[in-house]
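Per your request, structure below.
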């Protein structure tokens, strides 16, 4: 349900407006007779991620932590 309030009325009843907004109401606040602000509840827009969502979609090579021989030589970490 949407209600219209003057700015001074919204200031005076702010706690009540917040409580009603949490419960689903919406408000339009007017200043000098013109609507300037809409007060509405924030809804969660980011989907919740859960462990295992990407199972089977990521593959890591068996040699992912092995350095190419030329880089080993440059960095001084060569076995040879």
């Amino acid at each position: 349900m949407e209600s219209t309030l003057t700015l001074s009325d919204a200031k005076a009843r702010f706690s009540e407006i917040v409580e009603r907004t949490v419960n689903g109401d919406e408000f339009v606040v007017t200043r000098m007779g013109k609507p300037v602000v809409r007060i509405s509840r924030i809804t969660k827009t980011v989907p919740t991620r859960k462990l295992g969502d990407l199972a089977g979609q990521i593959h890591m090579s068996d040699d992912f932590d092995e350095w190419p021989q030329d880089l080993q030589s440059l960095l001084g970490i060569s076995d040879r």
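The beta strands are 2-6, 26-31, 34-39.

Regards,
D.
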